[in-house]
């Protein structure tokens, strides 16, 4: 699985967009980029994933650079409930067991 | 739909005791995983299974055993509990990738908080 690098912490004002960066320069061509978050000590919650193209769902948008060496998770209108640790993970090649390697993530603090 | 259910939610063990952490999923997922999370750290993979009767080691398997006799259940066994195994344990499952190879995300349970004294 690809090694990922994320800033340890970020702050965001409520109602503003939260842009969380991730570097995954060693990602291979068939590895996906996954984003999960963990609120308090709950189980990780899936947010979004993508391979090459940008992706959007009801929770967030994922922007992947053309060279696939980095990506940005965008929470368009952050709320206090989005305060969590966000994990960027490179892995999940097709046809494998899709083991995911979690780093220490980015602790996002949303403030009033 | 219950998703991934882990029991117990909390447990305190004495050194040398044994126990089984239970994990059940009702989504008919063939892939299942066990992770541990130490304070302030990310999750580390202990064992995983790609289907009933098939298991394999992850990053930190020492001190643990697993079995997968059914699609629904994937119990994790600690035979001789040690203080280093104090952690939060998460179970996850996912279905196989879709026909275009696009892998599906993992669904996690709420965890078992285990303290060994």
Describe it.
The complex is a heterodimer of chains A (112) and B (117). Chain A has strands at 9-13, 18-23, 32-38, 45-50, 55-56, 61-64, 70-75, 84-91, 106-111. With 112 residues, chain A is mainly β. In chain A, the strands form two sheets. In chain A, strands 1-9-8-3-4 form a five-stranded mixed beta sheet, with no helix packed on it. The radius of gyration of chain A is 13 Å and the shape is globular. Chain B is mainly beta. Chain B is globular. In chain B, the strands form two sheets. In chain B, strands 2, 4, 5, 6, 9, 10 and 11 form a seven-stranded mixed beta sheet that branches. The termini of chain B are far apart. The A-B interface holds A 30, 32, 34, 36, 41-46, 49, 51, 87, 92-95, 97-105 and B 4, 31, 33, 35, 40-45, 48, 50, 56, 58-59, 88, 90, 92, 94, 97, 101-103, 105-111, 113.
What structural keywords apply?
heterodimer; A: 112 residues; mainly beta; 5-stranded mixed beta sheet; 4-stranded antiparallel beta sheet; 9 strands; 0% helix; B: 7-stranded mixed beta sheet; 11 strands
- Name the chain pair with the biggest interface and residue counts per chain: A-B, 26 and 31 residues
Count of individual beta strands of chain A? 9
Number of helices of chain A: 0
Let me know the largest β-sheet of chain A: 5 strands, mixed
Low-confidence stretches of chain A: none
Shape of chain B: globular
Mean pLDDT of chain B: 92
The radius of gyration computed from the alpha-carbon positions of chain A, rounded to a whole number of angstroms, is 13 Å
Structural class of chain A: mainly beta
User: In what range is the share of β-strand residues of chain A?
Assistant: 35-45%
Helix content of chain B: under 10%
Task: Provide a short characterization of the protein structure.
Chain A has 112 residues and is mainly beta. Helix content of chain A is 0%, strand content 45%. By secondary structure, chain B is mostly beta strands.
